[in-house]
Amino acid sequence: MTRRCLATVLLILLAAPPISAASAGAATDPSAFIDQLGRRALEALNTNLAPEVRRAHFRELFRQNFDAPRIARFVLGRYWQLASDAERREFLTLFEDYVVFAYSSRLSEYSGEVFRVGGSRADGDAVIVASEIVRPGGNPPLKVDWRLVGESGGLKIADVVVDGISMAVTQRSEFAAVIQRNGGQVEGLLTAMREKTAGAGH
Amino acid sequence: MEWEKARKALLAVIATALLASGGGCAGQPGERTIAEDGESDNDPAETVNRAIFEANLAVDHAVLRPIAKTYSEQVPAEVRQGVHNVVKNLKEPAVAVNDLLQGNSQHAWQSVERLAVNTTVGGAGAIDVAANWGLPRHEADFGQTLGVWGVGEGPFVELPLLGPSNLRDAVGTAVDFAFDPLTYVGGAAATAVGAGRSGAEVVDTRTAHLKDLDELERNSVDYYAALRSVYRQHRTSEIQTAKALEQPKEGRVDISLPEPSP
After folding, report:
1. Do A62 and A37 touch, CB atoms closer than 8 A?
2. Cβ pairs A/B, distance under 8 A
3. Contact call for B233 and A174, based on CB within 8 A
């Protein structure tokens, strides 16, 4: 449920054309930010894209709308301090590859689900925007919370929480386990990520 | 078939063993969120858990997943939905009891109404009529009740065949068997129905998560760790939601029926 529905929501984002500087400046409200992306994505959703094209769009949208360095630092957790500069740099690159690989592979399963944006609330230095994905078959809607950071003109996504499950926390837990099983070496994680993303096409 | 009773006994043994070994089930004051926990995975028995996980995965690949795949591909969606509804309907009594224990009498009453409506009008539970009547389904189990009462999750436990759990929830699952009327009704017919119901529940649950788990297994660099994190966060979120619904207690469980509107 977690990655599949996140992929569904991210498909909505990836199908949207890049937000121009003008419209980004106009979207000062966090809810409007998510809502605008969602609307544009839904309009563009009918096009049938090839997997490589989808992944390329996904990567572009991830770069534009997610605070990748911040997420990567959080996800590496306490091991960020222990990693060398070279390891940190490589992790940042591999992390983007890994996100594109792990989350875009389900995009072909997308089937018209309605995306509804709710209100926003403050949480420390971030803003959380609530949204829902209405699923067919009488199942309860999926709750998706978007954690936004940054200035109103330059809002970026720092985490996505699907039905109470944070993508960043899950990823951090997983990566930490890999590092621990490799004797505390970050290189072990980098190897695993390289193997996973090899041949994913980037 | 003694499967129900054997499963219950197995869980009781595990739960007792873990409690006896001082698994730290000392009722921590309130649930701590994963974020507050720092980066602890709360998995002191990780080596054993991983071994059980590998065994579970082998059984899943060999038996359960193929069944679920065939079930989802061959059986029509309406039939599968009907099975799902029947399985959930049979759980409503346990849900209602746990709602009361959590101090949520309105939710408990809703479960009772759902059971009554769906069993009669909904073809012995096959159709979720109650949902269309403004009575949506919700879930509650004893592990969640313990959590609402302030019992901390305890160490992570990978249960044989049953999958990810923790000390508190494993105890909860054992207690839930006690709430199950079918556990007490003896005789061949009841055990046959019980076994059938268990089988249906297992296939139904596995099918519901077929695509998501496939994807997670394929994409994760550590499937065990990913599932562990997902399970912990899911339970914490469920308990926080249930706590928010708790009605103020006055030292006793108050069962109040909704008053008729004027």
Report:
1. no
2. 82
3. no
Which of the residues in chain B have pLDDT under 50? 1, 21-37, 254, 259-262
Residue with tokens 């072909």: A108
This prediction's pTM: 0.78
Q: Using an 8 Å Cβ cutoff, are B247 and B109 in contact?
A: no
B244 close to A (CB below 8 A): no
First-to-final CA distance of chain A:
26
Which candidate, B17, B14, B6, places its Cα nearest to that of B183? B6
The pLDDT value given to residue B26:
40
ipTM of the complex: 0.79
Between strands B156-159 and B163-166, the pairing is: antiparallel
Is the CB of residue B147 less than 8 Å from the CB of residue B235?
yes
Query: End-to-end alpha-carbon separation of chain B, Å?
Result: 53
Residue A115 has what pLDDT?
Answer: 80
In this prediction, the residues of chain A whose per-residue pLDDT falls under 70 are: 1-28, 38-49, 105-113, 136-139, 152, 199-202
* CA A50 from centroid of its chain's CA atoms: 20
Token output for B201:
């529940």
For an interface test with A, which of B79, B209, B222, B234 has the most A Cβ atoms less than 10 Å from its Cβ? B222
Q: Quote the crossing angle between the two packed helices B105-120 and B77-89, to the nearest 10°.
A: 130
Of B45, B2, B13, B1, give the one whose Cα is nearest residue B174.
B13
Q: Which residues contact A144 (CB under 8 A, 6 or more apart)?
A: A5, A6, A9, A130, A131, A132, A133, A160, A161, A162, A163
Residue A193 contacts B, CB cutoff 8 Å: yes
CB contact under 8 A, A164 and B234: yes
Burial, A2: exposed, middle or buried (Cβ in 10 Å; 0-12, 13-18, 19+)?
A: buried
Using CA atoms, how far apart are residues A161 and B236, in angstroms rounded to an integer? 13
Hunting for tokens 């005789």 — which residue is that? B187
Q: Could you report the per-residue pLDDT of B35-77, keeping only the tens digit for each?
A: 434 568 899 999 999 999 999 999 999 999 999 999 999 999 8
**In sequence order, what are the beta bridge partners of A116?**
A132
Q: How many helices (H) and strands (E) does chain B have?
A: 13, 2
CA distance A115 to A143: 10
Q: What is the pLDDT of residues A46-90, one digit of tens each?
A: 346 677 777 777 788 888 888 999 999 999 999 999 999 999 999
| Model pLDDT for residues A80-90, shown as the tens digit of each residue | 999 999 999 99
- Asked if residue B206 lies in contact with residue B67, where contact means CB atoms within 8 angstroms, the answer is yes
